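TICKET #2291
ISSUE: user wants both folds in one file
ATTACHMENT 1:
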Amino acid sequence: MINRQLMQLIKINILYVNPQQTRKQRENGKTGAALYRSLIYQYLLLGALFAFIYGALLLTTNLVKDIGEFTNIVGLFTIIGLSQSVTTIDNVFFESKDLKDYLPLPLSQWAVFAAKFSVVGLTILPTALPVWMMFVIAGIQTGRFIGIGFTVGTLLFILYYIFLFLFCSIAIFSFAQTGIYRHHQKLMTFLMTGITMVAMAVAVFVMNMANNDNSTSLKAIPGFAQLHQIVVDPTSLVSLVTVAVLLISVFVMGVLLQKWLLPKVMSGANAQTRTVKRKHRQGQGMARQFIRYNLGLLGNPTLLTQSISITIFPVVIYSIAMFVQNGFSLANLTAKYAGVMFVAGIMVAIITVNQGSLSSVMISLDRQNLAFIKSLPIDFKGYLWLKFKLIVIVQSLVLICLAIGFGFFAKLLWLNVLTLCLGVVLGNILSSMYNYTRDWRLLDLTWTNATQLFNRGGGNMLIGFVILGTMIVGAMVVGLYAAMLNAFPPVIINVSAMMIVIIATTYVVWHYMDYWKKADLTL
C-alpha cells in the first residue's frame, strides 16, 4: 500500500514541479506512463549534458596525482549543489504550501516526504553529476580495471550525494523551527538563499584566482582529500575509516530527519507565526495603490533569488572574473566607441532580461487576484500597462547600477558609461516587451512556487540555450561593429548603426503595441 502511495505521490510531484512542460507533453498526445517518462528523460538529458561537458574537460587533467585540482573542483560543485538544494527544498516544502492538504488524507507521512525528496533529488542531480564524473575518471586513471574504477566512483558518489542531501535538508528544516525564521520567514528565506549564492560566487572567484597562481598546483582541501583517497586506494585504512564515518553520518542524519524534523514540518511547526498588520492609507489614488500592491508581489524571496540567479548573477560572476582574474580594462576606448558601448548595453540587457527575469512573470504574480482586478470598473489594459512600466523601471534601475559599476571598474570614459546605461535601458524595454507578452501567452494563475513560473515554455535548459545563443550573437555584433569603426570612417559607421537600431526598435515596439491592441484579455 505504501509503495503504491509513494509511486503515485512521486508522479504527482513530478507533474507539479513543471506544470508547463506537463501541459506541453499532453498537447503532444502523451499520457500515463509515457508522460512521466518524458518528463524524467528531460532531467536525465540535462544531467547527461552536464556530465559530458565537464567530463570532457576533466579527461585532460591527471586527477590521481593532482589532489588539489580534484578537491577544489569537488568543493566548487559541492557549494553549487548546496545552493541548488536550498532553493529547491524551500520551493517544494515551504513555498508550495501543500503539506497541510495531505493531513486529512489517509496517506503515510513517510510516503509524502519520500515523494517530495525524490523529486527534489531528481531536480538537483544534474548539477552534481560532474562530481560523479570526477570520481569515475579518477578511478579509471589509477590504471585499475575500468569496471572497478567505475563501480568505486559510482558507489562513492551515491554516498556523497545522500550525505550532502541529508545535511542540507537537516540544516534547512532545523533552521525552519527557530523563532526568528517563523517570525521573519520571507526575510530569512531570502537571506538563506542569498548566502548560498554569495558562497557560490566566492567559490568561483577563489577557483579563478587559484588557477592563475604561479604555483604548480592547487592546495588540497581537507575532507575532500579523503574522498580522493577512497577513489585512488579504496582498500586503505584511511579510505575504510572515511567510508565508515560517511555511512554512520548518513544513518544518524536519516534517523534524525525521519523521527524528529519531518513530523514537526508536517504538523506545521514551521509556519509563520507573526501576524502582518497592514496600514490603512487614506487619500491615495488607485494607481498608487496598484503600484504599492505590485511592489509587494515582488517581495517573494524565492522569486527574487531565483530570478537573480538566472539573470544578474551570471553577469556579475563573469564581470568579476574579467576584472580580478584577467585585469580587464577599457580605458583605451575613445569617444568614437560610444556607439559600440550603446549596442553592447542593448545586448547585455537582452541577455540579462531573459525568461527568468521578473518581467517574464509579472502578470502571473497576481494569481487569482487578476480576475478580481479585471472585474473592477477600471481599464484592464491600463492596469497591465502600469505593471509593465513598473517592472521596466525596477529592472532599469538595477541594470543602470550594474552598468555604472562595470564602467567604473573597466575605467570607461564618462561618455561611454552614459551610452552603456542608455543601451541597457533600451535593451531592457525591448526584451521586457517580449517577456511580458510571453507571460500573458503562458499565463498561469494557479502556481504554488516560483519554479513553476520560470519553467514555463521549456524550463532552465531553454533559458540556458537562449542565454548562450544571445551571448554568441551579441559578441559577434559588438565585435563586428568595433572592427568596422577601425576599417571605415567612424561617422558613417555610427550613423548607420544608429539607423539600424532605430528601425529595429520601431518595428519591435510597433509589433508588441499592435499585439496588445488586438489581444483577447479574457481570463
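ATTACHMENT 2:
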Amino acid sequence: MSVHVLLAFVLAAVAVVVVVRWVANLTGLPAAAMLPIIGVGYALLPGPNITLEPDIVLTFVLPPLLYSAALDSSLLGIRRNLRTVVSLSVFLVLLTALVIGLGFAWFVAGATLAAGIAVGAAVAPPDPVAALAVGRKAGLPPRLVTLIQGEGLLNDATALTILSVAVAAAVDGGFSAPAALGQFVIAAVGGVAVGVLVAFAVRLLSRPLSGDPLIANAVSLSVPFGAYLLGEQIHVSGVLAVVVAGLIVGHHTPRSASGAGRLQTSAVWRLVDFLLEGFVFLLIGQQLPAVVRGLAKYEPSTIVVAVAITVGVVLLLRPLWLLLTQSLPRSLHTWLGSDRSGKGDAEADDGAPLTGREVVALSWSGTRGVISLAAIFTLPLVTADGTPFPDRDLLLFCTFVVVLVTLVGQGLTFGPLVRALGLRANENDKARLRNEARAASVEAALVALDDLEAQEHDDIHVHQIETMRAQLRARLARYRGRVALLRKSDPARLPVSPLYEAALHVRRTALDAQREELLRWRDSGRLPDEGLRILERELDHEEHLLPDRPVQR
C-alpha cells in the first residue's frame, strides 16, 4: 500500500469515525458497536485493506488506551471494591481460560488443552470501552462504573500473561501448572513494581515541569509507552505496569499538576481515546474475510462446536460467577476485603455485596474488543518442531465471533437493559455532594483570607482582601442555596432554579458579546491575531466553568 493510499485510507477512517460519533450522539446507539459492522461491510468490498498487526496494537495502541482509562479511574474506589475487582479481573479470567481450554480438549476434535487455554485467555478479558460509553449515557451508578473500569484495567494483564504461558506450552508441547503459576506471579508482581517505579519518577518530574503545559503533555503521552517497554524488557507484565502507573499518577495529579496543564492534558487524552478507539473498532471488522478464509480445512461440525463452547462459556460463566461470589456469607465478604471500618455510607455501600439488579447489569457489561483480537493474532504460525500451530485459524475465528457477538449484541442492548433495571445514578445526591464540597472549599478560602489579613497591614492589601472576601461570600451563598434546594427536591431528578438558569443565560450572553467585539477589533485591524487568541483563551477558560448543558429558559 503506497503512502498516498494509506493517507487516503486514514482520512476516510477519520471521516467514518466522526460521522459515526455524530450519529451515536443523535440516536444513542453505541459507536463501539456500529464501527465494527461498518468495518465488516468495507472488508467485503473490493479495494485496499489494512491487516491488524498485533505487535503494533499491543505496543502503540493498548498502552495509551489503558493509561488514559487509568487516569480517569478512581484509585480509592477500586481499593474499596478490591474484592469484586480482583474476583472479576483475576479469578474469573483464570476460570474462563481454563473452562474453555477443557472444553476444547474434550469436545473439539484434535484440539489440545494448551490451544484451548490460549483462546480462552484471549476472549476472557472484557473491553470496558463500549459498556462504559453506553452505561454513562444511561446513567449507570458510580459504583458499577468503578467496577467496570477496575476490571477492564486489570484483566488485560491477567489474560495476556495466561496467553503467553499457554502459547509457550503449545509451542514446546508440554504444560506445567506449577511453572505457569510461578510465571504468572512473577509477571504480575514485577508489573506492579515497574508501575510504581514509573509513577514515582513521574511525580518527581511533575513539579519542576508543571509550569509549562506543553512539557507536561509530552511527559504524559510518553509515560504509558515507557512503562510498557520497561516492563516488557525485564519480562514482566508491561500492561499491568501501565495500569498501575496510570492509577497512581491520576490519583496524585490534582496535587502535582498545574491547572493549565490539567486542562490541556485532559483535552489531549480525550482526542487520543476518540481516534484510537475509532480506528481500532473499524480494524476489528476488517479482519473478518482473512479469518473466514482460514476455515476451509475444518469440518462444519468442528467449527460449530468450537464456537459454541467459546461463546457459551463467555456469556454464561460471567453471570454464574457473579451470582456465586455475591451469594457468599457476609462474614466471608468482610474477610475478603469489604468495608468494615465504619466509614461513611457511600464508602460502606462500595464494600457491600452487589444487589440482584447490579449483578444482572454487570453480567451483561462483558463486551470483548480489540484486546481479544490483538492477543489471539499473536499466536505463532509454527511450533518448536516446525509444525503448524494447532488449530490457529479456528482459534482466530472463535475469538472474532465472540468479539462481534458481545460488542454488537451486548453493546446495543446494554443501555436499554440498564434503563429497564432502573439502575440510574442519583444525580441529585451527586450534585448535592459537589456543591457541599464547593462550599467547604470556599469556607477554607475565607479562613485563609482571615489568616492573610492578620499578617498584612497594608491598606491596598486590605482592600484586595475585602474584594475577594465579598466575591467568595457571594459564591458561598449560591452554593449553600443550591444545597438547600437539592435537599428539599425530588431525589430522582435535578431541580431547575429559574434564578440559576437566568444567571447562566446572562453570563453566556455577555461572553458571546465579548467575543463578537474582539472579532470586530481583529477584522478592523485594531487587534492582531496573537492578541485575539490570548483574549479568546481567557474567555474560553471562563466559559469552561459553566455547566456543559443548554440553558433552560
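RESOLUTION: both attachments delivered.
EXTRA DETAIL ON ATTACHMENT 2: The CA atoms of residues 210 and 257 lie 5 Å apart.
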